[in-house]
Amino acid sequence: MTADREIKVDYLARVEGEGAMYLKLRGDEVQDLKFKIFEPPRFFEALLRGRKFSEAPDITARICGICPVAYQMSSCNAMEAAAGVSVGGQLRQLRKLIYYGEWLESHALHIFFLHAPDYLGYDSAIEMADAFGYRVASGLRLKKLGNKIMSVLGGREIHPINVKVGGFYRAPTRRELDALVDELEWGLEQALETVEWVAGFSFPDFERDYEFVAMRHPDEYGILDGRIVSNRGLDIPPDQWPEHFEETHVEWSNALHAQRIGGGSYHVGPMARYSLNHAQLSTKALMAAHDVGLGRTCHNPFKSIVVRAVEMVHACESALEVIDGYVKPNRPSVPVTPVASTGHGVSEAPRGLLYHRYRIDEQGLIADAHIVPPTSQNQLSIEDDLRAYVPQHAHLDDERLQWELEQAIRNYDPCISCATHFLDLTVEREES
Amino acid sequence: MSRLVIGIGAEDRGDDAAGIEVARGLRNVDAVICLGGSLDVIHLWEGWSDVVIVDAMKSGAESGTVKRFDGLRDRLPTSSFVTTHALATGEAIELARVLERLPPKLTVFGIEADNVDLGAPMSPEVKEAVTRVVAEIDHA
């Protein structure tokens, strides 16, 4: 006898933006699984064509209200690579600082408002705030701190306007950065407390043998630039991205799914960064990870919340180091003269590797643009997680299974608004 | 009483820019634009005693319909406001209510959106509603 079981959720809460998932089960066997993303036409890539190379940071920042700095930095890196220019010294330090601000605000949003309710059994942060008012208020203050850093360097909190190809329009004064120190010191202590708090949650016993992909820099925990590496031997400069990764169309989604050429799904984001570059974390972040028993690598996606908290510690401590060593540069940017060329740029958005490629013509106009956000890269990995998770948990009732599947999707902090709208979750069961 | 208008929305997404366009159109009152998700209103309104929020919403009404809420007295629909981000405006306000972080006075204008697709133009009805809301706030 075969009986169908079906779960439908029209709206998946607590993800950035919306998308859809369909799951069909027969007993504990997955018959069909599709993580759908309804990506609008590649609006921004089209918008960029014919625009000046210098406009890319401001235009791409509009793609996402949560991670505009990531789009700015990857586009700057690509444009500077195309022009053969390198941005170093204090300007590079300032870029890291604004990026730490973005990690902090994005991770605080996800940890406290989107993901923690899953572990504590609440439907939303509003319900959680009754019993965990202190935590929610701390999350708000950490997020505000991240926004403040972005505002001091970027001119405004969201969609910073002070970032340009070659550096900044204006460099902050020493005093402006010093004004962040007290709150960053509070943030560091609060982030350490957060690591302990979230490490105490209960985590499903689930691991997968991921191919982690992240940037690696010789001198620091990769965020701004570096080579693209994986735990399966990949080690390439950003301009070799097209030789190792491809995007494919799938029938059920008009979004592109990124995959390793010949290698299937891969995983980008905090767990990939942590597992590949663990030893380069700031001292307190490393100690915090050790103290809660996180290990040198992390393969349980439900523990990504702990890794994000560890990265908040790293962001605060590293931001304080940048401020401590800051000397206002003589000029806020280096000159960039465009040449007809193709430039590739990557950086580590809060959700993982963000790849940009631009072809520039001899007038400095963008002839072609290509952007691959982290969530597009994680789509297949999300599907693979669900495919592996479901058979082990098919005995759960529909409500509980749905809860855990939504949580499994949220493990990736999917920023579907970068690439899509509405997420429906449908689970169909056939019991044999 | 210090008055602040917060226009919430997303650029490049058709009628979702309604709140932003209201904030940009005001002449007689302080206004800020909130693009990064509604949660930020809780710190944007710190120190202000009379706060007005304007956002696009989808409640099933005719496009361009304007609804006005008293943020302190009314319980806002948590799912009606358009959001391309994690927490909708109604949720952010409810969260602030639980945390006792609401400003002394809070008014919310919801402008009914039609098309919020990426790259869509703003619909004529919403443009007209933006003009009406600007006039109402500016002359209040």
Give your account of this protein's structure:
The complex is a heterodimer of chains A (432) and B (140). With 432 residues, chain A is α+β, with helices and mostly antiparallel strands. Chain A is 44% helix and 19% strand. Chain A has helices at 43-48, 56-61, 68-83, 89-120, 125-131, 133-154, 174-178, 181-199, 241-244, 270-277, 283-291, 304-324, 374-393, 398-410, and strands spanning 3-9, 20-26, 29-36, 163-164, 167-168, 213-216, 227-230, 235-236, 245-250, 253-260, 341-349, 352-360, 366-372, 425-431. In chain A, helix 3 (68-83) runs antiparallel to helix 4 (89-120) and helix 4 (89-120) packs antiparallel against helix 6. The radius of gyration of chain A is 21 Å and the shape is globular. The model of chain A is unreliable at 6-17 and 417-425 (pLDDT under 50). Chain B has a 5-stranded mixed β-sheet, covered by helices on one side. Chain B starts with a strand and ends with a helix. The mean pLDDT of chain B is 88. Classes of the chains: A alpha+beta (432), B alpha/beta (140).
Characteristics:
A: 432 residues; alpha+beta; 3-stranded antiparallel beta sheet; B: 140 residues; alpha/beta; 5-stranded mixed beta sheet; 4 helices
